[in-house]
Amino acid sequence: MKKISATNLTRRAHLKKSAKLLGFVLLMSEIDIAWGAKILGVRVWPSEDYTRITLESDTPLPITQQILTNPDRLVVDVQGLELNPTIKDLVAKIKPNDPYVSQVRVGQFQPGIVRLVFDLKEPIKPQLFTLDPVGEYNYRMVFDLYPATPPDPLMELVKSSARKESALAKSNEEVDLIAQFATKKEKEAPKTPVAQAIPEPKEAPATSKYKRLITIAIDPGHGGEDPGAIGAAGSREKNMVLSIAKRLRDKIESEVYMRPYLTRDGDYFVPLHVRVQKARRVEADLFVSIHADAFIERNAKGASVFALSQMGASSTAARWMANKENASDLIGGINIKTQDRQVANLLLDMSTTAQIKDSLQVGNSVLRRIGSFAPLHKGKVEQASFAVLKAPDIPSILVETAFISNPQEEARLNDDGYQDRIAEAILRGIKEYFSKNPPVARSVNS
Length: 446
Description:
Layout: H1 6-35, E1 39-45, E2 51-57, E3 63-68, E4 73-79, H2 85-88, H3 90-93, E5 101-110, E6 113-120, E7 124-131, E8 139-147, H4 153-160, H5 162-188, E9 214-220, H6 237-253, E10 258-262, H7 272-281, E11 286-291, E12 304-308, H8 316-326, H9 328-332, H10 340-347, H11 353-371, E13 382-384, E14 396-400, H12 407-413, H13 416-436
Parallel strand pairs: 9-10, 9-11, 11-14, 12-13
Antiparallel strand pairs: 1-2, 2-8, 3-4, 4-6, 5-6, 7-8, 12-14
Helix pairs in contact: 6-13, 11-13
């Protein structure tokens, strides 16, 4: 028998050990590929429009869904995932005031499959889709839970402004009576100097030129998954512009002949084309989008007002800002597979010369009012192809209240007094425009 040396034995043992180690590594690699995905974050964005649930992961994960009734539930299976504390956090993120979800249950359905069961408050139409990495986000699984019977925003607006409609109608009736009285007195008055002694009727109120309520759609930019620009101190554009928009809403509400409509009234994302559609559904007379953007140069400062352009941007900065704002859908996350997207693209190509002309007029009025107390980035209304300004039949402007990327202007945007002055300036500009361009009466009150 051939004698085996101690050196050969040591080498053979080493090879066996290496083989076992290699096998272990390969096995762990397979496990990691199958179930090694990490959930980086879970977020919930409730609103009256819809509730959005987002799961962010380091790799794309397949998802399947089914709707169950009696009671209403949405069941979602996430494949390639093991239960972990991060995804369990989803349970605590569902709040009692969520309009559509009462609670969520999370469990390990099978090895490598996590099941999410959403107990619903009413029937829904879910849209589930995935998003590739963009901006600061990794892969995202998005669950948009829309109500099966969505509310009609126009009817809601009509209900909320019923008293104001009645008051304006009464005011117009009084104006008509005053006019009739004046005409009658003029006909009956004798053609003598005594006629001069007849008392003149009281002057008609300023609102007499408005035969119906003027609807102003206020559009706070960004929201939800899309924070907008972020300042050096951490301020988020979506929060600042929502605060300014609510101030403007309250000021418009105090006007007897106007009513406001917010495209979003909380921290949730609204796609650009949906903002336009919302304004059209409530038959808005004006669309005002409010922003507080950033620029590549930190010393950029001053407020700006933009209108739509069909002929290209009026400046390099305007083009840059439009491109940045138009990328909002990528950050916020839209389901590009829905049929509504085709309709939206058609809608956004229907912009008219008349709309742009009116937008420039109201934009100039607003810009002058803001310039009375705040620095302006440009002394005239700029133009660029902002997607959110492309309603074909509604004058539309975008107001950049200041540059959040400028530390001094970021601090100003955080000041309640400045926010209020910006809202007041926008209101005054709107009032100035409509005093010269009162809307025509509609055949059916709305």
